[in-house]
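Write out the 3D structure for:
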Amino acid sequence: AAMAKKNRRQKRKAAKNAQASGMDSGAEGDLKAKGTKSFVQGDYKRAMEYFTKAIELNPKDHTLYSNRAATQYQMQSYAEALKDAQECIKLKPDWHKGYLREGLAFEKLLQYPEAKKSYTNGLKIAPEDPSLIKHMKAIEDLLDELKLSEQESAADNPDGDRFTRLVTWMKDGGCKFPKLYMKYYTEDYRGVHTLCSIPADDMVLYVPQNFIMTTEMAKDSAIGKAIRRSRYDIRSAHSWLACYLCQEKHDLNSFWKPYIDILPDKYSNMPIFFEDFYKNFLKGSYSLEMAANRQLDLRSEYEGICRQCPEFRKFHHLEFVWGRLVVITRNFGLDIHGTETDALVPYADMLNHMPEKQTDWKFDNKLDGFTMVTNRSVARGEQIFDSYGRKCQGRYFVNYGFTIDNNFNDNDAVILADLPADDPHYSMKVGCLHGRRVREFQVPAHYSEDSTGQSDNNHPRNMFSFFRFLHARDKELMPLSTNEGYKLKNIEPISIRNEIAVLKHIQRKARESLARFPDPLALDHKLLKENRFMDMNHRNCVMMRSGEKETLHWFIRLADMAIPMLKMPWKDLKRQAAKCHQQRSRFNYYVTTVIVPLVKNQK
């Protein structure tokens, strides 16, 4: 019995020693094996669970932290991967793999000098390790390239002092963008370029939360609290940040001063500031009315705030407009720890627009900051772009002060739909329209459901639906009847007669809109081809009006081509329809979705 008791004590002691030295005990070893198998299979979430449970059983096993660090790395949880790698090193400082894990995590967190130090420490232990040698060479090449590129780009920038202060302020605060630099083109145009080649899926920018200016921050500021106490009902959420910018711009000791100093002093490229010289180039364009309405909205918001909040009266109207333009041209919509907010993100807001975006961005709750990651490779010295999203040309022009070349699918124009005075059902229809016999549509040149429109009046199908109601006759009105009157939306093609009347009406209104432009489309195309403009504002004006004219011409051609097809018997149309099915185009889509069903099913 005494001998058995002694053996049990020895077994317990051996098990304890094994745990302390990191040797696999039964359950822990089983979990480690399962974790490794899941990792190899790419099931990182399950691998994470197994390694975590194994660590709970044996928190002294350095290999478990190394394995979990590798798993965290694959799950893009780089801060957690770094913590596990450093715990591995703490437990086993003479094991080279811990330093490899640490270096890889540092690289993903944009801490390149720290990554080099990790690889250096690992190579001291295992100088022949191929992975450490490979990553050490790559990080040394990168750091040499970044150093050379920074020297090359420094001489490029007349605004160097302001940019240097911004970069120093951000880096001192934990922001990271080691592969990027800002480049000056003109007083109104700057961009962000790469210091080296950047692969896809690479984080190029990290901005911690305390360097992100949010609506919540603005509301909690002195001016924000004053506005809330005044009980003024802010009409645009952007006004909170605009008011906060006004306050901080006047505070020479503001935390945000390095950021505010690099913001544009003026926005001469914005149509709301155009004088008659540029307005003459926009005669006939809906952008003039859009800009005028924007001016009125900004004036109304400013005067409303001043009327109820005396503390805001010290700021000039133009300062408020400046703040609103800063916000609308630089704003990011973020979800920060479950709270959706508008935000200004230094450096990230310097990226210019490209329809095909090169980056994806978000607020990363794990890293507690804003991250920007490339979604394709970017060459050394190349400008790196973000996308402001698909928009009609008018929104790009009036909201951001630029236009997009080849914006064919999203160029749009204004078409007025008016109820004909000789309509046999005029009184009934006017009543249904609540006395408004004219409705304005601002639509792109297609019939597709795919549209960037922000309201019902921006969708081509809604325009066609409304015109179909206007031209519905007798029995055609019965299916449109509802308990509330007549439906005006989602009206499918009614009849060949109705559709022909719709196309003729749209064509007539498109010609009326075209007649408001003093210059023909051919002149715009000639100017754009020669590309000899006085400045970018002049070019943007021509781009804006040419997009509207192209849209109107499309609707005119649509009627010219579609009406003869609507008059064909099905046996003659069938062959043409087959070609339309095979070749995708905006016109062919209208043929297959509207003309073919009407002609095929006519009685």
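Confidence is low (pLDDT under 50) at residues 17-24.
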